[in-house]
Amino acid sequence: MKETRLRILVVDDEPGIREMLTTRFELDGHHVETAATGERALAALAARRYDVAFVDLNLGGGISGIEFLKQARPEHGDLTAVMISAHGSISEAVEATKLGAFDFLEKPLDSARLDLVLRHLAERAALQRRARVAAVGGAAGVDMIGTSEALARLKKEIDRVAPSGGKVLITGENGSGKELVARAVHLGSRRADAAFVKLNCAAIPRDLIESELFGHERGAFTGAVAAKKGKLEMADGGTLFLDEIGDLSLEAQAKLLRAIETGEVERVGGTKTSTVDVRLVSATHKDLAAQVREGRFREDLYFRLNVLPLHVPPLRERREDIPVLATHFLSTFAEAEGLAGKELAPDATALLVDYTWPGNVRELRNLMERTVILVPGPIVHARDIADWLVPVTRSVPAGTRADDDIEDDDSPAEPGTLREELDRREAEAIAKVLEAARWNVTQAAAQLGVDRTNLHRKMRKYGIRRSREDES
Description:
Elements: E1 7-11, H1 15-27, E2 31-35, H2 38-47, E3 52-56, H3 65-75, E4 80-85, H4 90-98, E5 101-106, H5 111-136, H6 149-161, E6 168-171, H7 178-187, E7 196-200, H8 209-214, E8 215-216, E9 228-229, H9 231-234, E10 239-243, H10 250-262, E11 264-266, E12 273-275, E13 279-284, H11 288-293, H12 299-305, E14 308-311, H13 322-337, E15 343-344, H14 346-354, H15 360-374, E16 379-380, H16 382-385, H17 418-436, H18 441-448, H19 452-462, H20 468-471
Parallel strand pairs: 1-2, 1-3, 3-4, 4-5, 6-13, 6-14, 7-10, 10-13, 15-16
Antiparallel strand pairs: 8-9, 11-12
Helix pairs in contact: 2-3, 5-13, 13-15, 17-18, 18-19
């Protein structure tokens, strides 16, 4: 696992100590800034976030290290402080610990002790960063950001649907925010204080989906070394969110239907039935009615699930929300990464609004995270992000999905034309996503917001194939 790189502030009035610690930390790849006084250190904290501050207790003149901690704690409660002193005492160590100091080191600093402290600090920072990024994803709340009429209609529908106990079927394209809607339904229901359990039906192998849904007993199959509760049991009293319900096998559909009708579940390999009280919320990007006609989805289950339908509009149908969402993501990721905030220049905003967003809000979120980390300077221009947008060579009519199988022109583009340039950029983007996904076409197609069959066709069109080096 890649080691976490820390953002470190060294506060010491001795230039030699500042230089020594800076060199020591930078050799390990950490980012280091220094301050000679407590006042300058407080100013540095006001300008940006640091993972840890190494602070000398006996700062010459001005405020002491203890006073620095007292003043920093109210505004920067998540700062990890390591106190350093050449004349440390038990009373000072106790006071620093009460103020939240992580550790207390004495000069001259022991190299092995410093290594140990750094390792612990890196582990602590990694956990804190993961928690902040998870919060950005909305796991703890349901902030549906935007002022468009389409989003306002959806919110009103959620307000009407959530308090009831009826089953909900959420439809919408990949990345449009179906899970966020499901959480909003749960939190607006009478079951809000109970469990919200989710299962992605497309992410579980067919031979394990029943075990995930209903649980299994010990020895039910190879690898079942212990009994395990299924998602239905885990959600008892709360809400079960079945994402990508359209990928459920016909056999699993039959068993799910029986569980819905009877309220009873039986673990794989078991004989005992148990009763569960679960509100079912399902979601899919597929046309389930068409799947019913084609015999790939049970009609009776479809009508059971589709009691209260909710449709999440794609991002291209609520373009007025794009600048607001982009600004929100820029701010939250800058906060999560401890980096300076960024603003979109007018040309960048226009580029984002004009783009068709095949990956919807998820694609915008990922783009803004990349922007925060990789774009230098406080202002983001169109030229900074244009190459990261997946080129779109056709318009997407309202009411259709970005991954519908509409044939593109596969004939070679004329040299020097706009289409040739768009084709080149599209090929580069597809190749990059495939490499990042380790040539998992299904995963790459989901990230690009296109159908897997369509992606295979584009790979043939551009001659994109896995090299022998990648295969090895």
